[in-house]
Amino acid sequence: MFGKKKSASTPLVLSHEKFDTLIGRHAELQGHLHLHESVRIDGRVVGNVIGAPEQAVSVVIGPTGEIVGDVVALRVIVAGRVCGNIHAMDRVELHRDCLVQGDLKYTSIAVEHGARIQGLLLQVDDAESPDRTDRDAQEVIRKAQGLGTSDNAGTA
User: Fold this and answer.
1) Is the distance from CB of 80 to CB of 98 less than 8 angstroms?
2) Residues 44, 23: Cα–Cα separation, whole Å
């Protein structure tokens, strides 16, 4: 609790949370996971990983872990790969050498130097519904695409 303060160069530390579910590095699951407790994934999951909204569920993707699908949970910590969208109702942490190919919705975020993100970062309020943030994201994309059209070319 009291000790050395973190500096800007202090790396994030993978969660010391208790996990009742562990998907080992040589396991591959195909299908959606609906969680009521936290999980650590060191293997591969092909399908969505969804934490119960009324539970404080954390999803940790270890350095050898991979998810091909969307992740929805209170907290999401990525040290491996996610090919899909992430919606963390509280916090998302992206560790060095992780790769996220999808949009991130979060209340707070921590990104370590070397993390790779190929998608939109969307900060949302606790009270915002997922449907509203989806509409907001679509609007941002439409506006960004409109800036690159020939209608706007050549105007100063």
Assistant:
1) yes
2) 8
For the entire predicted model, the pTM comes to: 0.73
pLDDT in tens, 49-68: 999 988 899 999 999 999 99
Closest CA to 71 of 61, 63, 79: 61
Q: How is residue 35 written in tokens?
A: 């969680």
Instruction: Determine contact, residues 69/32, Cβ cutoff 8 Å.
Output: yes
What does the angle CA 29 – CA 31 – CA 34 come to, to the nearest 5 degrees? 100
Helix then strand then coil, in percent of the chain rounded to 5, is: 15, 40, 45
- Do 72 and 54 contact (CB within 8 A), yes or no? no
